[in-house]
Amino acid sequence: MRQATVLPLFGVFSALLPLCGCSGTASSALSGTPAVVTPAPVAPEPRTPPVKEPPARVTTRKANTQGMVFVTEYHNFGYEKGNMFRTPEKFAKDLKRLYDLGFRPVTASEYLNDKMDLPPGASPVIMTFDDSQPTQFKLLADGSLDPKCAMGVWEKFAKAHPDFPMKGTFFVLPRMWDQPKLRAKKVAMIKEWGSELANHTVHHPALRTKNDETVMSEVAGGIELLRKYGIHEPAMFAMPYGSTPKNRALIKQFKYKGQVFKTAGAFLAGANPAPPPGKVNRYKVPRILAQPGNLGLDFWLDRVEQGKVSLYVAP
Ligand SMILES: [Zn+2]
Predict the structure, then answer these.
(1) How confident is the model over 45-72, as a mean pLDDT?
(2) Residues with CB in 5 Å of ion ligand 1
């Protein structure tokens, strides 16, 4: 008798299965009926390739690979007066404002080599940090980033906005943020973030005022410092004060004390957006100082908001 009741039900259940398209268990499908029926074997998931969602468009701006590129220039962080300082709070605001305006970070190398990995509708920003000020990058005793240093501020922002990762270019001096025992660890962190180290000379002279011998010794010294940290390819270079040597050929390449020293690109110190990859003179790249006032970062971001800058926009 029991068998006789179950069999027709099983037939109904089997017939329902393709209709409901679910993998419900026998007991739920036959609610109220004793679960004497062997559950149907669960069909393996169909092997369809995972559908890759196209990345969401960051802005409604039209693609424009001939537009201008923002290369920001930061020095020191803190509460002192003067255009060399940005407060940590203001830096956090800069990140948010850049983000909201559709900027996404790439390194100086990615920009000049036209290898910018940007989501559609985004505009590149190259975040550059000069002079290796300790306020840029400080580790606490437990190895974590000081939340008040620039990288601490950026880390917090990047955690909340993973599509604005800590990718920037550090134009370093030999002090390399002090904390000498932590230097190797910091360099490893920079590489892990996808950021890059770049040259800013040894003693930070205005190169225009120096003879060829001094220019070569300063540029070569900076390159040798980078080599110590595993950078053997030609690196980017920011000329102190944006001051170009009289002998401009030395920016690209020279032979000094039996060795060849090459530079991949040279950056100025102000005061406007840079031309797009392919159009920019890679040995004369303008930057935008992170300062209030005329031609500073705030000024240029206002211009973007007002629609007065034709920005590079990723297709
Ligand atoms: Zn400098």
Answers:
(1) 86
(2) 130-131, 240
